[in-house]
Specification:
Radius of gyration: 22 Å
Helix content: over 70%
Order of helices and strands: HHHHHHHHHHHHHHHHHHH
Structural class: mainly alpha
Shape: globular
Largest sheet: none
Distance between the termini: 67 Å
Number of helices: 19
Number of strands: 0
Length: 468
């Protein structure tokens, strides 16, 4: 009986086709509804209960926060719409399979392992955020700002239970990931708003005219907490823009937007940016000020909105971790093509849950988000040029596939040299990690163009000799 059930379950999971190695067929393409809820749910997330408080801790002034978030989120939406979405709609392939065509199997293998691990760590932070709420009724000690290692056995068990639920949704495929987000998002954003409004009287806001004075004096005061660096408008703008650099400029959301009927669906990212990365970051900053500096997301939400707040943290962590584990599973799938997709995703969930046990992943979230986007960014420039520009300037797209290469050195050197450049200006010129993505992208574009002209000449000459 059990053996028969397992055989049926294995067959059912095998039947879920996510088109990991082929273009998405026309019959599976989706309209606006398939993306608005997913982006809104993914970016109105449990991590907003971390990022909002970290802005408060870094002493952002109220005006710098508001204008920085507006500018950065507009730039992020434009990056999805004009960079990632056109490539995704044109190829209808995942980032990972497209890279294999451009870079060759060995270079793609290196990149995809790095990519998958980065997404595992990111999803791990979401699981940890949800766990801070799940553990509340059991009296499990919550991690503090300086904690690096797991704080208790109860914390580890809670993390693995949450991780299992999230992984099961990701295994079911993109349809279920998007459906879960569509159901959860409207309620989550209302809880964020209601919780923020509920604690304003505790801070001294009794009318709308009181808000701006209280915001400057008690919430975003312009004075960083002890041991934290000072953030300005530029920190906020570049963080809001590059918090998802891996997804838009880095092209990871090709895995999502390949299901889009047209490139304009990239503008659906605005639902996530302005509900999550604007309203939710502001609301969670208000909650932090009212909670007198508490940083555990579950505790902050529970203190302000009771059980609804704690449940919101749990669901918000899930809606972000689901598509993140889905992306990581696709990356590992390209590394282990002989594994069944559901088994790869299950393995991904295990790695993610192990990472989530370490609270430092959450407490260092601002720096980690900036770092993983920076690491993945150069290959985004490679894909954009290869797919959209090369056919127009006489260069060969998908060189590795055309020339049967295992390692495209023009793409590989672009990745390595760009990262060394960013490391150099960070260490020797003192440029903070939040600001490295923009100059790094232009360096990557220049390198890939120049190297491709040199590198492809070799293959053009070889083809001419063979023809002769």
């Amino acid at each position: 009986m059990n053996a028969h059930f397992l055989e049926r379950l294995d067959a059912r999971l095998d039947s879920i086709d996510e088109y990991e190695r082929e273009p998405v067929p026309e019959s599976k393409l989706k309209g606006w509804k398939g993306f608005l809820g997913m982006y809104a749910g993914e970016h109105t997330a449990g991590t907003e209960f971390v990022i909002g408080p970290l802005f408060v801790a870094h002493g952002v002034a109220a005006g710098d926060l508001i204008w920085g978030l507006i500018a950065g989120n507009v730039l992020a939406v434009l990056s999805w719409a004009f960079l990632c979405a056109p490539v995704a709609v044109k190829t209808k392939l995942t980032l990972y399979w497209q890279l294999r065509k451009i870079c060759g199997s060995k270079l793609a293998l290196m990149y995809n392992i790095v990519n998958a691990l980065m997404f595992c760590f990111l999803a791990g932070s979401m699981i940890a955020v949800s766990a801070t709420a799940v553990g509340l009724p059991f009296g499990i000690p919550m991690p503090e700002l300086g904690d690096w290692l797991p704080t208790s056995i109860g914390w580890i068990v809670t993390v693995f239970v949450v991780g299992l639920v999230i992984t099961l949704v990701a295994i079911l495929g993109y349809d279920y990931v998007a459906r879960f987000a569509n159901i959860a998002f409207p309620w989550m954003i209302l809880v964020f708003i209601a919780a923020g409004l509920a604690v304003l009287p505790d801070l001294g806001v009794t009318s709308l005219s009181d808000f701006w004075a209280v915001a400057n004096d008690k919430i975003w005061t312009g004075v960083p907490a002890e041991g934290q660096s000072q953030f300005t408008f530029w920190h906020v703008m570049f963080f809001a823009w590059f918090a998802n650099m891996a997804m838009h400029i880095g092209m990871s959301d090709m895995s999502i937007l390949r299901f889009a009927k047209k490139w304009q669906h990239g503008f659906s990212s605005a639902a996530g940016m302005f509900c999550g990365h604007f309203i939710a970051w502001i609301a969670s900053g208000i909650l932090t000020a009212a909670a007198a500096g508490a940083i555990a997301p579950g505790l902050i939400a529970y203190n302000s909105a009771g059980i609804a707040g704690a449940v919101c943290v749990v669901i918000a962590g899930w809606t972000t971790a689901n598509p993140t584990i889905y992306r990581a599973g696709l990356a590992f799938q390209s590394v282990t093509p002989n594994w069944k997709r559901w088994k790869v995703t299950l393995f991904t969930g295990l790695v993610t849950s192990i990472a989530a046990c370490f609270p430092a992943l959450v407490m260092m979230l601002l720096d980690f988000v900036a770092l993983y986007g920076l690491i993945l960014m150069p290959m985004g420039a490679v894909i954009l040029l290869d797919v959209m520009l090369f056919p127009k300037i006489g260069l060969k797209s998908n060189l590795a596939e055309a020339a049967n290469l295992n390692f495209n050195w023009s793409a590989g050197l672009t990745w390595f040299v760009t990262l060394f450049f960013c490391l150099f200006i960070n260490l020797y010129m003192g440029v903070e990690i939040f600001f490295l993505g923009l100059p790094g992208w232009f360096v990557a574009v220049a390198l890939y163009l120049g190297l491709s002209f040199l590198y492809q000449r070799k293959y053009q000459n070889a083809a001419a000799l063979e023809a002769a």
